[in-house]
Structure formats: structure tokens, C-alpha cells
Write a structure and sequence with these properties.
alpha/beta; Rossmann fold; L-2-Hydroxyisocaproate Dehydrogenase, Chain A, domain 2; 6-stranded parallel sheet; 3-stranded antiparallel sheet; 9 helices; 14 strands; globular; binds adenosine-5-diphosphoribose
Length: 304
């Protein structure tokens, strides 16, 4: 299997390392900055004898090299700079998405595409539109990350191991994300039987702000260890055809009463990409929250 990772910055490079070290595939790192992808690829390859894998990791500035990729992961993009509005960022990153989408269309027309670039749901939509690929083949990574953050925060709060906490975090990747409390269990108990309403609200708010919290500490740059792990989860399910139900941003055609946008929902992920969107039974409040978040996503997409 060959996976191309577009963008050799923090998320892209960390992901390339995870892919090789988990023996998922050979990796091609692509970046517009001359030498960046190549230098990091050589550095990672030099570690292979110690961390013990035989995967090839190559770096390039040439998009033609992505030919033959089974999967392309899009991490390239700009971070928001002082003075830049949210709309400026959307437009700039959408331009980058469009230019990369054209290269994917030409060089690997049969690939699956995973998008990580923010604002996520808008960028997934743009990738889908520009490639013209089937909606099953364009997947946005956010829910696996937001879910892992919520689990970590709940684990710290309760002392229950992370592996014993289950949840889905759906909707737009941002302030309006919706942790599905009705589907959240802690050591097989309902979350509401373990934590008070106030404690739950604190954990939810902390989850929503987690990305911002990391940015505040880092000062330059944003999270990358957990986002790259969020992508790995999807890659593993594709590679092994696990058909696990993961929260991903997918194009909706009426599911959860939402149409025409890319949005975080649970979906069966297998070797064909998004094999089925799963419509869980959720509470009226959760439905309302999803619809509110969908409105915000639609406004962002319309702003393009
Ligand atoms: N083609 C290829 N690479 C590009 C392009 C392009 N058109 N435009 C920018 N890049 C590269 C940059 O040169 C940089 O190396 O994308 C990389 C982005 O890396 P970082 O700035 O380190 O950003 P990172 O932390 O990796 O985040 C990437 O993922 O989680 C999201 O919000 C985050 O949208 C951001 C993306």
C-alpha cells in the first residue's frame, strides 16, 4: 500500500512516522517548501533500523510522484495568523485544497482521500467538489480526534482507564461539536450515572476548547500528535477492512435530517472508504444540537 501525505509540517510529518512505524504502508511526503519533505523523510528513514520497520518513506515537492497512491492524506494548509479573519483563512486554505485536489484527480483518480486541513468540514466539502470523487472516497478526520480528547478528559476526571470509555463526538469540528452523551459510557455505565450534570458540562467544554488550549501553550502551531493519531485510526480501519464505526466528516444526503454539507457523523470505515453512514438513535436535544451545528457549517461553506 502507498499513502501520500500532502504537507510535511507538524501533522503530516508525525503522521508519516506513525504510518511507517505501524507498518501500514510506504509513505510519500509532499510539501511545497523545497527540501522540507525530503529532509524529514531521510531523517525518519534513518530511524527505521532502530524502531524496526522496512517501510519506505520518501519526500518530494513534485505532485506527479503521488501517482499510484491508494490513499492521499491532505494536511497542507495555513494556520491562522494575527490579523487574518476566519473567512480569510477559509478562502486561503480552500485555494490550497483546490490546487491539491486537481493533482489528486489527475495522478491518482482511484485513491481514497482523507482531509485534515481546517476548517475541516468546509475543506472536506471543497475536496469532494473539486475532485468530483464519489462521496464514499472523501473522508474528513475530526471525530476520532475529538472523541479521543473527550475520552482522555473523562478518564482524567473519573480515573477509569481510557479503554473502558466509549463515546462519539459528532457535528462540525469546532465550538459547535456535539459529544453524544446518550452514547457515552464509562466502564459500561451511562455517563449520567457516573458524573453530575455540572461535571459533564465541564468535560464537554474542556473537549471543545482542547485544540485552543494546546495552541495557547505551544504559542506557535497547533496540535499534531493527537490529530495524526486520529488519522491513523481511520487508516487502520481502511487497511484491515475492519468496518469499524468511526466518527468522520462525510457528505450527507438526508442523514440526521441534514443534506448538502460535509459533517461529523458515525460511519462504517472499510477498504472502500465510507461504506455506510450510521444513523444512531439520539435524543431530541442531540438532534437539535446537530442541526444547529449543521447551520453553522452551511454558513461557512456558503461563505466560499
Ligand atoms: N502544497 C503542499 N504543501 C503545502 C501547500 C501546498 N499547496 N501549502 C502549504 N503547504 C505545507 C506548508 O509548507 C507546511 O509545511 O503545509 C504544511 C503545513 O504544516 P504546519 O504549518 O506545520 O501545519 P500543521 O500543524 O501540520 O497543520 C496542518 O492540519 O490540523 C490541521 O489546522 C491544522 O489546517 C492545519 C493542518
Amino acid at each position: 500500500m502507498k499513502i501520500s501525505v500532502i504537507g510535511a509540517g507538524n501533522v503530516g510529518a508525525t503522521l508519516a512516522m506513525r504510518i511507517a512505524e505501524s507498518d501500514i504502508a510506504d509513505v510519500l511526503l509532499v510539501d511545497i517548501v523545497d527540501g522540507l519533505a525530503k529532509g524529514k523523510a531521510i531523517d525518519m528513514s534513518d530511524a527505521a533500523a532502530i524502531v524496526k520497520h522496512e517501510r519506505k518513506i520518501l519526500g518530494t515537492t513534485n505532485f506527479d510522484d503521488i501517482a499510484g497512491s491508494d490513499i492521499v492524506v491532505m494536511t497542507a494548509g495555513l494556520a491562522r495568523k494575527p490579523g487574518m479573519t476566519r473567512d480569510d483563512l477559509i478562502k486561503k486554505n480552500a485555494d490550497i485544497i483546490r490546487s491539491v485536489a486537481e493533482k489528486i484527480k489527475v495522478n491518482c483518480p482511484d485513491a481514497l482521500v482523507i482531509v485534515v486541513t481546517n476548517p475541516l468540514d468546509v475543506m472536506v466539502y471543497e475536496m469532494l467538489k473539486t475532485t468530483g470523487f464519489d462521496k464514499s472516497r472523501v473522508i474528513g478526520m475530526a471525530g476520532t480526534l475529538d472523541g479521543a480528547r473527550f475520552i482522555n478528559i473523562l478518564s482524567e476526571k473519573t480515573g477509569v482507564p481510557r479503554s473502558k470509555i466509549k463515546t462519539y463526538v459528532l457535528a462540525c469540528h469546532g465550538d459547535s461539536m456535539v459529544p453524544l452523551l446518550s452514547k457515552t459510557t464509562i466502564a459500561d455505565k451511562k455517563i449520567t450515572d457516573v458524573l453530575s450534570e455540572q461535571e459533564i458540562n465541564e468535560c464537554v467544554d474542556k473537549t471543545k476548547f482542547r485544540g485552543g488550549e494546546v495552541v495557547q501553550y505551544l504559542k506557535t502551531g497547533s496540535a499534531y500528535y493527537s490529530p495524526s493519531a486520529g488519522v491513523l485510526d481511520i487508516l487502520v480501519s481502511i487497511k484491515n477492512n475492519d468496518k469499524r464505526t468511526l466518527a468522520v466528516s462525510a457528505f450527507l444526503t438526508g442523514e440526521y435530517g441534514i443534506s448538502g454539507i460535509c459533517f461529523g457523523v458515525p460511519a462504517v470505515i472499510g477498504s472502500n472508504g465510507i461504506e455506510k453512514i450510521v444513523e444512531l438513535t439520539i435524543t431530541e436535544q442531540e438532534k437539535t444540537d446537530l442541526l444547529k451545528s449543521a447551520e453553522k457549517t452551511k454558513e461557512m461553506i456558503d461563505s466560499l
